[in-house]
Design brief:
Helix content: over 70%
Structural class: mainly alpha
Shape: elongated
Largest sheet: none
Number of strands: 0
Distance between the termini: 56 Å
Length: about 270
């Protein structure tokens, strides 16, 4: 018995270190979740009291929406083309080719359009927000705003979050349209499927709920991505190195949040 205990004892420190690290990670996630919830509540109060600066909101709408269009168009086009080509490869000789229209429409509108747009905007919008606000935090510009009586949440956070909630669904709607059209063109070029047959297949299994589902996803992503990015920027510490760490952590948290919400939507809205 003593020999058995001695053989097990060397593994105890490893187990303790692993559990301690796991506990610290859980504590950090819980702390960030609580702070994000409090930040979100303050933004809701500012929105319903009409205290969000309109000029800031429109400015962020422009760079989140209009300036993100090129990368969104490229991503949605490639998503539609790849989905069409892969579906055509699988269906050739087994099912009627017009079913490809339904596959492309469902894949792009329900999943690829919202999720790929969100992933692209995490890198373009979310990382930029965290880096901007993190730099302001470590250079004490946020503290200067407090000393002047200005609320950073009202001036910096609320316009970005509201702009994301409005701009993201518009971008996803454009991505869905472009992806569907790109899939139709690809089906015509690679399989000789006529646009009429493609659209017939797309309408065959179409539900009006699908569009609402896609835009609901986009709205939730548009709220969560800038909210997490704003929070991570405002709690940044440690100079330039801290800004880098905060931006990296923000990207990881935003990706996990998007994937978690994406997994949560089907049981909630497609049952």
């Amino acid at each position: 018995m003593d020999e058995e205990e001695r053989s097990i004892r060397p593994y105890f420190p490893v187990s303790r270190r692993f559990l301690a690290k796991l506990a610290r990670s859980a504590e950090e996630v819980a702390r960030h979740a609580g702070q994000i919830a409090m930040l979100g509540w303050r933004i809701v109060v500012l929105t319903f009291t009409g205290r969000v600066p309109l000029r800031e909101f429109l400015g962020h709408m422009y760079w989140m929406g209009i300036q993100s269009l090129p990368i969104v168009l490229v991503t949605s086009t490639l998503a539609g083309v790849v989905t069409s080509q892969q579906g055509g490869y699988q269906f050739t000789g087994s099912v009627p080719l017009y079913i490809l229209g339904s596959v492309v429409a469902s894949s792009v509108i329900l999943e690829l359009g919202p999720v790929l747009t969100a992933v692209v905007l995490i890198g373009r919008v979310g990382a930029r927000i965290t880096a901007e606000l993190g730099t302001m935090q470590v250079s004490e510009q946020i503290d200067a705003m407090y000393s002047l009586g200005r609320d950073p949440v009202r001036v910096l956070a609320a316009p970005r979050v509201l702009a994301g909630a409005v701009a993201f669904p518009l971008l996803v709607a454009i991505a869905n349209t472009v992806g569907l059209f790109a899939g139709m063109v690809a089906a015509r070029g690679t399989l000789g499927l006529s646009p009429q047959s493609f659209l017939y297949g797309a309408r065959l299994f179409w539900h009006n709920w699908d569009l609402f589902y896609s835009l609901s996803k986009a709205t939730s992503f548009g709220l969560v991505i800038p909210l997490i990015a704003t929070h991570m920027g405002l709690v940044t510490r440690g100079g330039a190195e801290g800004v880098g760490r905060a931006t990296t952590s923000a990207v990881v948290f935003m990706l996990l949040a998007v994937l978690f919400l994406d997994a949560l939507f089907p049981p909630l809205m497609l049952q």
